[in-house]
Amino acid sequence: MLFRIEPGSAVPLGDQIAARVRRAIADGEVAPGDRLPAARALSDSLGINIHTVLRGYQRLRDEGMIELRRGRGAMVLDAPNTQARARLLDRVETLVADARGLGLTDEEVLALVRTGMGMGTEVSPT
Amino acid sequence: MAALTALPFAVALTVELVLFAVLRDRLPDPLATHFAGTVPDGFTGRTGFAVLSAGLTVGTGALFVLAGTRRATFARWSVVTAYATVGLVGSALVSVLLANADANDAAADARMPLWHQIAALLVGVALGLVGWLVTRRLTLPDSLSGQDGPDTGRLDLAEGEVAGWTRTVSSRPLALLGLAITVLGCALVVPVGWPVAVPLALLGLLTVNFSSFTVTVGPRGLGVSPAVLPRPRLRVPLADMSEASSRSINPLGDFGGWGWRIRPGATGIILRSGEALVVKRASGREIAVTVDDSATAAALLNSLIPRTAGTVPAVPPTGTTSTDASTRP
Predict the structure, then answer these.
(1) Is the pLDDT of residue B185 over 90?
(2) Which one, of B266, B300, B297, B270, lies nearest residue B283 by Cα?
(3) Average pLDDT along chain B
(4) Which of B105, B181, B237, B326 is most solvent-facing, going by the fewest CB within 10 Å?
């Protein structure tokens, strides 16, 4: 599996790795039940610290994308909606990046999402 | 190759004829030449047997020499089969002579001991192995196959972008073979003893360790190490590489077998046939690793190699001042 990262970017390297895996799940490049590269091998190939890779993997686990088992490494969660959830999370990431690019504050973004969900406007941008 | 194939048949023929000449006066006529278990049930005249055994040896030998092929894969197997055949047939013919020696009446006195029959099988296997070993180097072509593989191109890497590729390649047959040898070694502790059992078990574990490899490609170059233990590992830094390619490897034809192979001009970590990442060192020596998605790995290496040679650093210094927060990997 090919990983491309930007050490100069403001996005932490662990998050960049998580984003790459999430996109791979969303695109079907890795399927539910597939094993991800071992953290040691991945850190070795990129020339970065293994803990950086593990941070990315832990984030994916917290998102319910993968499971981490001692001795068996990281596996894409074998659930029917894993791919759809990866697509959704990928779009959230895009949304956040686009909103920041437009200069919106976090509260403004949340308000937009709440409005989109029909949950009223208790947090007003004005 | 023909001489190599003919040699064991010539040796077998000589042994048979010399033994026949030496034993001639002690052999009955007719000879017991076929055995049911250890007891004879078929007979042939003494001179007739000598002619027949010589004819059989020369005939099979001629057959193997004529059927010999120049195609590396088959040539080797044909030599191995020839050696195994001559071992089995030759020792069977010798056994017949020995079984008949000093018998007054073939039917009553000639016996074929069981160990002679087992010995014939073992000689066959042993000579097959000899055939395997003597053809080790001979059948390998000068260079790896698929020399002009399709151009893998390069990855479009942005300046400062770091890319790495990793993949694991495993061989289930090799893992099972290793397990079987280990179990056999453990089982032999009591009946045979430590001196045989322990090396066998260790050999089995070594085979298991060599049945799965992790391949990494990135700013540090190429790395190949067993997936279980971290050693032995193969490391080729980018500075020592001239080019990388993705090619189809034929284990028997290119490396004479599977596993961690070393041959003139190339090293191979060969767990299956098919696509392989092939890296050429500055010395011209080639490193082949059979691994899926090898084209991506080769393209990545080909885009990283020029970085080490010249102006662009392989890894940018940490803390570069890029403020492009929206950039995603």
Answers:
(1) no
(2) B266
(3) 82
(4) B105
Which tens digit of pLDDT belongs to each residue from B102-117? 888 877 788 888 888 8
Complex prediction ipTM: 0.80
Of A2, A10, A48, the CB nearest to B300: A2
- Note whether A37 contacts B326, CB cutoff 8 Å: no
Q: How many CB atoms lie within 10 A of CB B116?
A: 18
* Contact criterion met (CB < 8 Å) for B316 and A7: yes
What span, in angstroms and rounded, lies between the C-alpha atoms of B120 and B169? Answer: 40
pLDDT of A17 reads 93
Q: Which domain holds residue B34?
A: 2-134
Question: Is the model's pLDDT at B318 over the cut of 50?
Answer: no
Query: What is the model's pLDDT at position A80?
Result: 86
Contact A10 B165 (CB under 8 A): no
Contact B225, B214 (CB under 8 A): yes
- Closest-CA residue in chain B for A11? B325
CATH assignment of the domain containing A33:
1.10.10.10
Which parts of chain B fold into alpha helices (H)?
A: 2-23, 46-67, 72-100, 106-109, 114-134, 172-187, 194-209, 294-309
Domain presence at residue A7: no
- Per DSSP, the three-state class of B33 is strand
